[in-house]
Amino acid sequence: MISSGTTSARSFEQIVRGILAAHLGPIHADTAVMSASRHLGVQPSQLTERDRDALATALARPLRLYLDETKVRIVQREITNARVVDHGFASAGEEAPMRPVEARIRVEDDVIRARAEARDLAARVGFDPVDAIKIATVVSELARNIVMYAGTGTITVRPLVAARGLEIESVDSGPGIADLDAILGGRYRSRKGLGLGIAGSKRLLDSMDVTTGPTGTRIVGRKRVP
Ligand SMILES: Nc1ncnc2c1ncn2[C@@H]1O[C@H](COP(=O)(O)OP(=O)(O)O)[C@@H](O)[C@H]1O
Ligand SMILES: [Mg+2]
């Protein structure tokens, strides 16, 4: 039942914890991982992706402590679909949990949906819950800027392939950002959204590039799993 593969057991454990934390929060996720791995007779750190079916089955009991039956099956399917591959990650069963988030942004509801989807994807990629919330926060700031200043646009969040991480891309055809230098130089105080603004969002990521002009704005940010 337990076998070693060419993939990193630690990364698989992280991915499992990320999936569970997205649904249960980090504390209950820990309880569920401990309980299911004890049932399988291994330490959580010894789990590999070959255990995913057995793990999904073993998680049923602890998951039922916190979730209804429909949710339990959703989480089990995410575990069954979780994959770690040699160079980075990836995955994709039919549910394709590593599929990029591609969100058309027009109204506040779109902002909220993009934020939630970005957080889920970040957890699947292996970000811990705190970093997953940072990713979600950046998405929500950029998406809200689209709604407020550009009208419509798109936010794409895609897994990076060379190493675990995410790229966030925001594109719109709005009027452009008038005083980008002051904003990036910290001389502008954000008042909308969460008050983080573009400058605060940049600090939450490893890098952020802004291209803006009278025909629109494109912002690309990246963050690696630490
Ligand atoms: N996508 C965008 N299109 C046009 N202008 C923008 C866009 N995003 C931001 N801006 C401009 O840059 C300013 C700073 O944005 P931000 O740092 O998010 O702070 P805040 O939204 O709180 O003003 C905004 O007030 C707005 O004038
Ligand atoms: Mg803003």
Q: What CATH first level of the largest domain would be assigned?
A: Alpha Beta
Q: Given the structure, what is the number of helices?
A: 8
CATH superfamily of the largest domain: Histidine kinase-like ATPase, C-terminal domain
**pLDDT < 50 runs, ≥5 residues:** 1-10, 86-96
Query: Radius of gyration, Cα only, in angstroms?
Result: 19 Å
Return the average pLDDT rounded to an integer: 87
How helical, in percent, are the residues? 40-55%
Task: Tell me about this structure.
The protein is of the alpha+beta class and 226 residues long. It has 2 domains: 9-81; 101-224, Histidine kinase-like ATPase, C-terminal domain (Heat Shock Protein 90). It has helices at residues 9-24, 26-40, 52-64, 69-81, 108-125, 129-150, 180-184, 197-204; strands at 101-105, 153-159, 165-172, 207-213, 216-224. A 5-stranded antiparallel beta sheet has the order 1-2-3-5-4, covered by helices on one side. Strand 2 (153-159) and strand 3 form a beta hairpin. Helix 1 (9-24) packs across helix 2 (26-40) and helix 6 runs antiparallel to helix 8 (197-204). The longest helix has 22 residues, at 129-150. It is elongated. The model is unreliable at 1-10 and 86-96 (pLDDT under 50). Bound molecules: adenosine-5'-diphosphate and magnesium ion. Adenosine-5'-diphosphate (ADP) is lined by residues 141, 145-146, 149-150, 172, 174-177, 183, 188, 190-193, 197-199, 217.
